[in-house]
Request: fold
Amino acid sequence: MVLINRVNIKPEELPLLYHVNSMDVYNLLQDIGSSKIIIDLRSKEQYEKNHVKTSVNIPPPPTTTPLYENGEIKEFNLSKYIGSNVTAKHWNLIFQKLIVYSDKPFLYNIDELEKTISSNIDSGSISGNNSDQDIIKSLKISDWDKVVLRHFLLKKKKTKVIIYQSGFNQFQKDYPFMCNGTISSSSSGGGSQLYPSEIIKDFLYLGGAENAGSRQQLINLKITHIVNMAGELDDIYPHLYKYYRANLDDRPKANIYEHFEPVIEFIDDCKKQGGRILVHCAMGISRSTTVVLAYLMKEDHMTYTDAFTFCKQKRSCINPNFGFVKQLKDYQQHLELEEQERIKKQQQQQISLDSNINSNHIIEPLSKKLQLDVSDPLLNSSPSSPLISSTLPVPEIPPPIILKNEVSSPCLSHITPPTINDKEKQQEEKDSIFSYADKQEKMTHPTLHSPLELPQSSL
Reply:
């Protein structure tokens, strides 16, 4: 969406043109807060067939004019031609906004327009109504839209020039009941009344008692749910629509805060069901506006200031009383605390999740590494654990250790008890071993193993 009213910018930074969509045009038609004129630049035949309500027709000049030659009009006074329409004669003195539309988009070069306008301002050629700029030396009918748009920009004073680029057919498709010549616009109850403002496209509308009481308007807008914030107003169609009723007075001390959450829940239910909702009070200024602002603050995470600015661009007459404004700001603090708690909880959950992921990542490999292969390396030449096979050498069979008077064997526990013959054989082997050992000891230590001559006892 292109904003129409821009804030906090210097006058020299204001845009040359404002562009709007279908919903903006619809809301401008309901806006009673500013004066406006809508210019239809299509042919007279197209305008008479159907046009936007309250629009004024400034068609291309007929080709039968005496000045029309070879597809062009010579010496054409555009300012005088526009002034022939009583409503549009003093457009730049009476109206705050001028909206133009045609049957097709406007083709123009914004840099060229800005350069042309700035050069004319510097030369002072647009100071009077009879300046040279009023006379078009050569005008092609195909350039009519661009020529008139340029004229509006050159002649404007404080009036905002707004362009609807989508063309009349698109607006008629989106809002047929806002066009003259359609059946719905001529039906009873939906003629000259102002419609509610459209806050959210094809969903949420803000208005007053007249809108809630007009059956034709509710049908045209396809309303399914209604929020009645006025205690003094009855629910007119309880058998046709779903209602939320708040018996509330438009007083600063009235407790509208308690209705914020229930109304928001009611609007959400309507949205889930694919419906459309009208929020109204007596005038659509204070009570109904307050709960719409609360909804925008909650669902679209807006501050009070942002929600108010957004809503005022759609409906310029909104003005909650100071008591309701205070309650909205209190609600903003409540929402901020809720958001902080939500973020804190989300961070804690994320930390817990990261911790679980890290712990699983560390423990699982360790558990795999700690699965040691306890198989006998002597019996299994291919250990099941690649870690052990790559890090631990396979132990060799230790050599037998032979001691005197003892035979040691690593596999001694597996020897069966010897038989008698075996015992004799082992004894012979033992004697031979001991004999060999005695010889070795004598050779090494002759003094220790030499026979001793003991003195004979006299006894």
Observations:
- The chain has a mean pLDDT of 79.
- The domain at 191-356 is CATH 3.90.190.10 (Protein-Tyrosine Phosphatase; Chain A).
- The CA atoms of residues 153 and 427 lie 133 Å apart.
